[in-house]
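# step 3/5: fold
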Amino acid sequence: MPIINRISEFQTDMTQWRQHLHSIPELGFDLHKTAEFVAAKLREFGVDELHEGIAQTGMVAIINGQSDGPTIGLRADMDALPIVENGDHAHKSTHAGKMHACGHDGHTTMLLGAARYLAETRNFSGRVALIFQPAEEGGGGGQVMCQEGMMDRFNITQVYGIHNAPNSPQGQFELNSGALLAAADTFTINITGSGGHGAQPEDTKDPLIAGVSLVQALQTISSRNLGGLDRAVISVGEFVSGTANNIVPDTAYICGTVRTFDKDIQAKIAQRMAAICQGIAATFDVGVDLDYEYGYPPTINHPANAELAAAVARSVVGEAAVDADTKPILPAEDFAYMLEERPGAYLFLGQGDGAPVHHPDYDFNDDIAPIGASFFVKMVETAQPRG
């Protein structure tokens, strides 16, 4: 791969960093060992400023260029997942029940590699803000960093991030100029009836039967309330009710996820879900309590920034290895909060064949780390050229 020669020279170092991080996975905001390692490396590289303790264990490092100018943000996530690792490699997790099953150890390594090169060369104007974020996996660490004023505090004008992509060709960049990942909402529904003997259901108010009808009715939102081009998924993942074969239960519990790319569609689904719950309550004479929780918003690339990112990616891996019109996918990503505050783009970087993310056999492909680091560097040097 045509990566930056200097980054290629310290690829072995990057592999060692990544495998060390892989061996010490931590969850959510509790990333003390991880943050300590990252901060030590950044000081070793000679960053100009290091601001720690943002969103508890997040940090922003500043590298100054050779002249005045704006500040570009580059982001990596650092947290792991509560998964027991299957692998038997030398860098296997040493923290029981935790593993880097999504490649955040690799994302952090790519940004550290870029930090080392940028601190050595400073072949750009303005400043670079290196964003190391906790709690991407459900904790909303990116949102917390934004809520704590990161964008304004460091005068960040645009922001970019990368996620590895298992089973995409190794070294291929994938992005688009709009919605790349979905919003992820969660709904929980508690149904309260009046139980009794299974042989005398006429004396009960059956929450289980109400729940069955409710689950079926929820599926009509996509098929009857939305158009064929309105991309949305409504999935029930839990339905819990009853304790014995001859007892009509008192309660039922339903939980699921909603994935959308458009805020108007998202709002329409929430409204229809509330109306369906009210209708089921009236139909079956039971109590129905809906809790609709808005999660990560959709990750929406800004067209001009996506175009620039695609051009930079082509300069690193070549025209044929960049898909600038990739289809959106339904997982979610809290980099979305940063793109709501500042223009920018998010990209996938293929890591070749292997286990998918969030799988106990997953491991980051160390061969793509220099590619990601080279992209980050070229992004800075292209967006903010020296002089």
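# step 4/5: annotate
Residues 32 and 57 are 6 Å apart (CA to CA).
# step 5/5: archive (pending)
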